[in-house]
Design a protein that fits this description.
The structure holds 2 protein chains of 2 kinds. Chain A is an alpha/beta fold. Helices cover 36% and strands 26% of the residues of chain A. Chain A contains 10 helices and 10 strands. Chain A has a 6-stranded mixed β-sheet, with helices on both faces. The mean pLDDT of chain B is 90. The chains are: A alpha/beta, B mainly alpha.
């Protein structure tokens, strides 16, 4: 589903990703772990081309979604981003109503059919396990929600434009344990319909929710395998050291 | 002396200073009200000056100042806001943009009489508008353009990048992100800049001296190519160069009071709009 071939990425002269080859299967959860600054977020942002926004950066190699090179000249970045939702580390709801937050992606897509939008908003909030908590206050500001609710709102917002891939960069790191477990449950149910890639610093979280795990260090993908294998019997010593807490 | 008393003393000094500043402002305001309120009545507000400007009202000057506020705003607001959007949202931080930014800041520091001369040479003479509302408005517009640009840029910068990224990540174009997210969020702060610039425009004398202001013109303007009287210039005239200064002193204060009131009314209504907008955001 997602694939990179010999990907190198540079911030100016800084070589942030080194020769990364990976194949991520569809309808699964893949977790990226690794010490801070090793390039996990940078790697994640390749798949919706958010790195394009950072000036003075350079990419070599190929980055494919369903076999299509997403950095090819003919690719429309807006269309790509609609198919590749992203959830950020800190909840970033817009200063709009709950309803309008979820409807935003549809509206910028030029959709104006009101009942269609209302249906889609409801579905997305249900999929994000937020509907019951907000159905009576859709017209209220999104800022009235708790941090955990805001993050699920951001997930709903990403789901509303029917992506096939969802990228999550430490989506639960700013949340309390209860909100975190809600998000984890959510990721588990979303896996049926979406390909999910998640960056996390929480090793137990990676072990709990992911099917595959990739371990990054200093810009290299040290090891990538089934999550069970990575946590029970990693083949590289660095991985072993990291997950047992001897490093990072 | 322990930490707490030190801090207490420091706060006390700050408090006295800020009260003193507010006190000076109130004193000025009170002084002008005290001196000028006496002449304010319906006639003063709605009639033209008479008897060599020693009697009558200031209606033409009020109209003139309102025209100049409207004219310069019409010119400076769209232009300033659009160029600020361009420089802060689109243009990145290249050499050219940095140069433009430095120039904008320098422009803000040029004395206003220089703008007056420039306006006279360009709008009045070269472009042939003559002494007119349009020449004065354009001159005042250029004068406040740097202010509008600067405050708009600051307002846009204050919008968190995470919201821009959130919007772009949902497939919104840059233009959609600016128009649906960045601008609406920045708008209340942009308005603060617009209010400041209106205050500036209504009070400036030098830029309108050679471009629009009439010494005495009881007739109201018929088009933007007409001259008008304006409050600050009228104030200057009746305060220092009238025919009977002693007699017109109260009228000068009355004129000042009207000028302050206009700016105040615009400020208050703008902040009401601002509050309303923020509530919706
Ligand atoms: N905008 C940028 N400009 C320059 N260098 C950057 C930029 N963003 C990241 N880097 C560098 O690239 C490297 C990888 O950063 P990245 O954010 O991908 O790490 P990460 O693994 O996500 O770290 P963390 O776990 O702390 O989020 C870091 O060394 C960082 O300093
Ligand atoms: Mg990161």
């Amino acid at each position: 589903m997602l694939e990179t071939r010999k990907v190198n990425f540079y911030y100016g002269d800084f070589h942030a990703l080194k020769e990364i080859n990976i194949k991520i299967p569809a309808n699964s959860v893949t977790a990226f772990i690794g010490p801070s600054g090793c390039g996990k977020s940078t790697f994640l942002r390749l798949f919706n081309r958010m790195n394009d926004l950072i000036p003075d950066t350079r990419l070599t190699g190929e980055c494919l979604i369903r076999g299509e090179n997403i950095y090819h000249k003919s690719v429309d970045v807006s269309v790509l981003r609609k198919k590749t939702g992203m959830v950020f580390q800190k909840p970033n709801p817009f200063p709009k109503t709950i309803f309008e937050n979820v409807a935003y992606g549809l509206r910028v897509d030029g959709i104006s059919n009101r009942s269609f939008i209302a249906d889609r908003v409801e579905q997305s909030l249900k999929s994000a396990a937020l509907w019951d908590e907000v159905k009576d206050k859709l017209k209220k500001s999104a800022f009235e929600l708790s941090g955990g609710q805001q993050q699920r709102l951001c997930i709903a917002r990403a789901l509303a434009i029917s992506p096939s891939v969802i990228l999550m960069d430490e989506p639960a790191s700013a949340l309390d344990p209860i909100s975190t477990s809600k998000i984890e449950d959510l990721i588990h149910t979303l896996k049926k319909d979406y390909t999910i890639v998640i960056v996390t610093h929480n090793m137990q979280q990676a072990a709990r929710i992911s099917d595959k795990t990739g371990f990054f260090m200093l810009g290299e993908l040290i090891e990538y395998d089934d999550t069970k294998k990575i946590f029970l019997n990693p083949s590289k010593e660095e991985t072993q050291n990291y997950i047992t807490g001897r490093f990072g | 002396m322990n930490k707490k008393t030190k801090q207490g003393i420091a706060f006390m000094i700050f408090r006295i200073l800020s009260v003193a500043v507010a006190g000076i402002l109130f004193y000025i305001l009170g002084f002008i009200i005290y001196q000028g309120a006496g002449v304010i009545n319906i006639e003063f507000l709605t009639s033209s000056p008479t008897n060599g400007m020693t009697a009558g009202g200031i209606f033409p000057a009020i109209v003139g100042t309102l025209c100049l506020i409207a004219g310069s705003s019409l010119f400076a607001f769209p232009l300033g806001i659009l160029s600020a959007i361009y420089t802060s949202e689109y243009a990145g931080n290249g050499k050219v943009i940095r140069f433009v930014r430095v120039m904008t800041n320098n422009l803000a520091g040029i004395p206003s009489i220089v703008f007056g001369l420039f306006g006279m040479s360009l709008f009045v003479n070269t472009m042939g508008f003559g002494d007119s509302i349009i020449a004065g408005s354009l001159t005042l517009g250029i004068l406040v353009l740097p202010l509008v640009i600067r405050t708009t840029e600051e307002a846009l910068k204050a919008v968190p990048d995470s919201l821009r990224r959130g919007s772009l990540a949902l497939g919104a174009s840059k233009l959609q992100t600016v128009s649906r997210i960045t601008l609406p969020i920045a708008f209340p702060n942009i308005m603060t800049g617009l209010i400041l610039s209106i205050g500036r425009v209504s009070g400036e004398t030098a830029p309108i001296l050679f471009t629009v202001a009439a010494y005495f013109l009881p007739k109201l303007p018929q088009s933007m190519y007409d001259q008008v009287m304006a409050l600050p210039y009228h104030l200057y005239v009746i305060a220092v160069s009238g025919t009977d200064l002693e007699a017109t002193r109260p009228m000068a204060y009355g004129t000042a009071l009207v000028l302050i009131a206009i700016v105040l009314i615009i400020n208050v209504s703008a902040s009401l709009i601002r509050k309303k907008l923020q509530k919706h955001a």
